[in-house]
């Protein structure tokens, strides 16, 4: 199990994603004492970097020693009182998990239906809000990229839907899977709260969740009497590091996050987005090629909604996806993901997210193609050549 792997195994799961060496090195420093001003500088650099990446000047960033579920919990606890309602538009697995967590915390959830392979329909969101004449719905919780289906929704269209319905609900965007891969501009989009986590486009280990909260959302949290402590934004709004984290900060993760943000800004955010778009094109070309074998296909029906983070590939009924993944991982050193929730067993996922480049993506595509051949899954004339041509044509 722990035998050395010659070379590197290609990790192409949509989180956790590969960690750049510079981030690993940054994390391997000794922690700081609580009174060291370098700790304040480190925290401020992470807050400023996240604000810059989220393109918000009007928000406060609160960070947690948590994963994405922790950031979800922070939003739920601050945005709605016990018994109050939020609207969760269906995107698949992740919208449903967020909705279930919201209900488990004693809030009510209004759902709009999930249409498999399609993004959130803003017209349906608008209607649900128009139907809420008493304005019982306090917020709309929208998943930007659903990491299981690989479908991205149009956050600007959801903002327009809320405005068209003349509804005061706050707009919360989950950018866990999209931040650092797809363009996102919190202030321009009119997003009131954005939430994310460290282990995807941010190229860090799991363990740092965060939210950016504008003044309107902060005021709503202030007025919300729901009992809470660790997640409370009002309690965390402090200049004192210890308070900002409601205790000891996850310092080494923050050292990694500061380094990772530095790498993104050094490359340039537009360039980072272009790189993700290119790697996505390579994967799309490969899937298109494989699909000619009649067995595989895109889960996301509308090409415009296929995310630049991850591509979900459908397989024929009865395919042993775990066996396919095991062959890819153990024989060819390509670690890809299965599909989750309602898609379990119906597909596999190729991530093009985080610290990637064409060589890694091409290697992954070739390894997956080899695994498909081993498992006897038809791939037509193959997809690797298509990906190569797409790269050469770029
Ligand atoms: C879109 C989205 N939101 C939330 C989560 C939950 O994050 P975590 O697994 O870090 O708790 C994930 C995890 O993959 C995700 O993809």
What's the layout of helices and strands?
Layout: E1 10-11, H1 21-27, H2 37-54, E2 59-65, H3 68-79, E3 85-89, H4 93-104, E4 108-112, H5 122-131, E5 137-143, E6 145-146, E7 151-152, H6 155-164, E8 170-174, H7 186-189, E9 193-197, E10 208-214, H8 215-223, H9 233-236, H10 241-244, H11 251-267, H12 269-291, E11 297-298, E12 310-314, H13 321-330, E13 334-335, E14 337-338, E15 347-351, H14 358-374, H15 384-392
Parallel strand pairs: 1-13, 3-4, 3-5, 5-8, 8-9
Antiparallel strand pairs: 2-10, 6-7, 9-10, 11-12, 12-15, 14-15
Summarize the model shown.
With 394 residues, this protein is an alpha/beta fold. The protein is 42% helix and 16% strand. The radius of gyration is 21 Å and the shape is globular.
Overall average pLDDT: 97
| Overall morphology | globular
Residue fraction in strands: 15-25%
Written as H for each helix and E for each strand, in order along the chain, the element string is EHHEHEHEHEEEHEHEEHHHHHEEHEEEHH
Secondary structure class reads alpha/beta
Uncertain parts: none
Taking the sheet with the most strands, its summary is: 7 strands, mixed
* Strand neighbour order, sheet with most strands: 2-10-9-8-5-3-4
Bound small molecules, deduplicated: pyridoxal-5'-phosphate
Rg over C-alpha atoms, rounded to the nearest angstrom? 21 Å
What is the tally of beta strands? 15
Helix content: 40-55%
């Amino acid at each position: 199990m722990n035998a050395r792997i010659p070379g590197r195994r290609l990790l192409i799961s949509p989180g956790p994603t590969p960690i750049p060496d510079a981030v690993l090195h940054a994390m391997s420093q000794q922690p700081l004492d609580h009174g060291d001003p370098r700790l304040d500088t480190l925290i401020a650099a992470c807050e400023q970097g996240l604000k810059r990446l989220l393109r918000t000047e009007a928000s406060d960033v609160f960070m947690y020693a948590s994963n994405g579920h922790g950031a979800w919990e922070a939003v739920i606890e601050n945005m709605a009182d016990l018994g109050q309602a939020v609207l969760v538009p269906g995107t698949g697995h992740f919208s449903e998990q967020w909705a279930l967590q919201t209900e488990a915390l004693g809030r009510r959830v209004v759902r709009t239906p999930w249409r498999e392979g399609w993004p959130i329909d803003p017209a349906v969101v608008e209607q649900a809000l128009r139907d809420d004449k008493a304005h019982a719905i306090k917020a709309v919780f929208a998943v930007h990229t659903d990491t299981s289906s690989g479908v991205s929704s149009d956050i600007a269209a959801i903002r327009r839907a809320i405005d068209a319905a003349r509804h005061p609900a706050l707009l919360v965007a989950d950018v866990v899977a999209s931040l650092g891969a797809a363009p996102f501009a919190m202030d321009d989009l009119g997003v009131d709260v954005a939430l994310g986590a460290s282990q995807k486009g941010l190229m860090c280990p799991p363990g740092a969740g965060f939210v950016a909260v504008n003044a309107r959302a902060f005021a709503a949290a202030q007025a919300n009497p729901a009992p809470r402590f660790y997640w409370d934004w009002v309690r965390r709004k402090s200049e004192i590091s210890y308070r900002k984290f409601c205790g000891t900060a996850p310092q080494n993760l923050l050292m990694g996050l500061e380094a990772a943000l530095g790498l993104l800004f050094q490359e340039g955010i537009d360039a980072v987005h272009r790189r993700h778009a290119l790697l996505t094109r390579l994967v799309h070309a490969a899937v298109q090629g494989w699909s000619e074998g009649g067995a595989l296909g895109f889960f996301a029906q509308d090409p415009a909604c296929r995310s630049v983070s991850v591509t979900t590939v459908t397989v024929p009924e009865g395919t042993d996806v775990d066996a396919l993944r095991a062959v890819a991982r153990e024989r060819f050193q390509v670690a890809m993901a299965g599909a989750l929730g309602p898609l379990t067993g119906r597909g596999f996922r190729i991530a093009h997210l985080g610290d990637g480049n064409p060589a890694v993506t091409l290697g992954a595509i070739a390894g997956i193609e080899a695994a498909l051949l081993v498992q006897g899954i038809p791939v037509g004339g193959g997809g690797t050549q298509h990906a190569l041509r797409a790269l050469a044509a770029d």
